[in-house]
Structure formats: structure tokens, C-alpha cells
Design a protein that fits this description.
By secondary structure, the chain is α+β, with helices and mostly antiparallel strands. It has helices spanning 38-55, 64-70, 112-118; strands at 2-9, 19-27, 85-90, 100-106. The chain has a two-stranded antiparallel ribbon with strand order 1-2. Strands 3-4 form a two-stranded antiparallel ribbon. It is globular and about 65 Å long. The two termini are 23 Å apart.
Amino acid sequence: MKMLDCEFTVTAGPHIRRKFWQTFTVVGGKVDDQGVSIGWKISKGVFRAMIDSALGLDSQDMSEAAKAKRMLRGLSDLHGITFAAKVRVEPANDPRYSDSNRLDRVVLPGEPEYAKVMAGEAVAAAPSNRPARPPAAAAATPPAWSGQAATAPAAPAPRMWERPAAASPAPQPAAPAPAASGPSWLNG
């Protein structure tokens, strides 16, 4: 299986300069009836939504001009793309680790949040429609091979949003990638 390991940086709002990481499947994993990777199909949809959000394209626009704007030479063209998104907090499966921020969904033009984000307005946090993964129960005793006796679980680390943001230079908005000939896998 091949994965794309992505780092995202918040560019506006109260969490500016915060980072979170996520991987996307590009090859392999479970396949559908036609032998196409299900993970790749999901990743491809997210990448296309990122482009539509960044460029202000209507997701239903299948004109030649819109298709040309969605054309990438490769996945590296996504580097530096700036788009509107909703981020969710995913509980840690193991109490030794803190919760993780994850890309919940890309916010597309036409959605009320998109106009507010693009106008620089603050958008209040709202629960996602997606169910959160329940945290896994901690094992009461370590495995026999660990050589450790059972101990009380360690206190959980502070959650990412409870830590102060590190100061860094102001982010520069990314210029949209120029339309170029290349794979059209984002247009379908």
C-alpha cells in the first residue's frame, strides 16, 4: 500500500499556525468490484474537493475550463494549496497518547461556512455529523512478554488545542497551480 503523508497548517482564525497530519491512500488496500482501490477513490475525492475549495469552483461544474483548472501534473501540485476545511478532534485509542486533529471535510463554495471563511469572518465551532470513534479501553494488564507488572495508567497528555501555539512567521498564501496538461483523474 502506498500512502501520501500530509501536513496541514491552519492559516487563519484562533488556531492559526497549528499543524496536524493525515495520511491518504493512493495505491492498494481494499478494492471495489472493478479492482480499484477504495482508499484511492476516497483520497481522490478529498483532493478534488481541496482544489474546488481553493479555486472557488462549483463541484458540479464540469465545463472544460473547470476541468482544466482541476488538472494536476501529479500529487506534488497539491503542495501549498490553501482551502477551507472543517477539522475534528479524534480521541486517542491509547491513553498514553493525546487526541488527534483530523481533516473532517473540505468546505466547498456554496456552503455558508465557505463564504464566511473566505471573507475572514470567524466561524463558530459546531459538532460534525460524523460519529466520533470511541476511544479504546486501556488494557488492565500489560502483555506477558513486556516484562512489566500491571501499573496505574499514566495521566493523559494535554490535548492539542489546550497547548499554546508556537510563534512562527505569518504563512504566505499559496498561488493556485497553473492549469497544465496531465492526469485527469480529478475530473471524474
